[in-house]
Amino acid sequence: MTPALEVVRTGPLALVEDLGRPGFAAVGVGRSGAADRGAYGLACRLVGHDDHPAALEVLLGGLVVRARGALTVALTGAPAPARLDGRPVADHAVLHLFDGAELALGTPPSGLRTYLAVRGGLEVEPVLGSRSTDTLSGLGPAPVAAGDVLPVGPAPRRHPVVDSVPPAAPGPAVLDLLPGPRADWAQDGVRALTTRSWVVGPDSDRIGVRLAPVDAAPPRWADAVSDGELPSEGMVRGAVQLPPGGEPVLFLADHPVTGGYPVVAVLTEASSDRAAQLRPGDPVRLRAAPTRC
Predict the structure, then answer these.
(1) Where in the sequence is the domain holding 270, given as residue range(s)?
(2) Among 132, 159, 170, 187, which residue's CB has the most CB atoms within a 10 Å radius?
(3) Percent of the chain at pLDDT above 90?
(4) What does the DSSP assignment read for the chain?
(5) 73 lies in a domain?
């Protein structure tokens, strides 16, 4: 029997993701890939991969899958309560599924995206060298649906070396900022973002997270450029764009490749991962990235 993962039920959204398709921005194709690269990479390492095979990115739980053949899997990211054939099992741990076993994910109490990696990887059809779903462009496989059978590739030679890892401690989101190429477009530069308290707005997804100020007026464009225009320019994951209204947008995995508003700051890699786990209504604090000697 060729091993596979059968989808019995999905929650709000389940996508196949790997590290994306870098190198195509010049022709208008974004990288995409796992929204929380740290959690995705950890899941891959737990099942013995030092490469980056395709895995499932599950939004707010609700996924039920059935093993076709014996499979080894791991769950990381948002701590969705999991049951294997009705028995509770741990997240951030290696799980062994016998043929026909069902793994069900509940709603995580915190965080947004849970990663399910399978030893061997999910071998759906690649597009431009990647098996990632890009929700902005529509490239890659369609969102996972009930009844899908996702083939699993051959296992790597390397075997899992640990059974589990401690999950990240929950707590308020503190995101580190580096100055962006247009920091001078914000009144007071990056400080305009770090001196306010923020909350995640409802219109947030894999493309970006919009923040709203809690206890102060939104930042303003600098007086010298308030009436200016900025041509579209390239963008990267973690770019912090400041529209004229002052509510910054933190761009995530499926961000556009160009934008017309100033990029006043850029999130660090770890903070981009953390932003991908934010829910609408979550409080956020922005700070200047600590300097290293």
Answers:
(1) 173-288
(2) 132
(3) 84
(4) ---EEEEEE--SEEEEE-S--TT-GGGT------SSHHHHHHHHHHTT-SS---EEEEESS--EEEEES-EEEEEEES---EEETTEEE-SSBEEEE-TT-EEEE---SS-SEEEEEETT-B-PPPBTTB----TTT--SSPPP-TT-EEEB-PPPSSPP--SB-PPPPP--EEEEEEE-TTGGGBTTTTHHHHTSEEEE-SS--SSEEEEEESSSPPP-B-GGGTT-----EE--TTEEE--TTS--EEE-TT--SEESS-EEEEE-HHHHHHHTTPPTT-EEEEEEPPP--
(5) yes
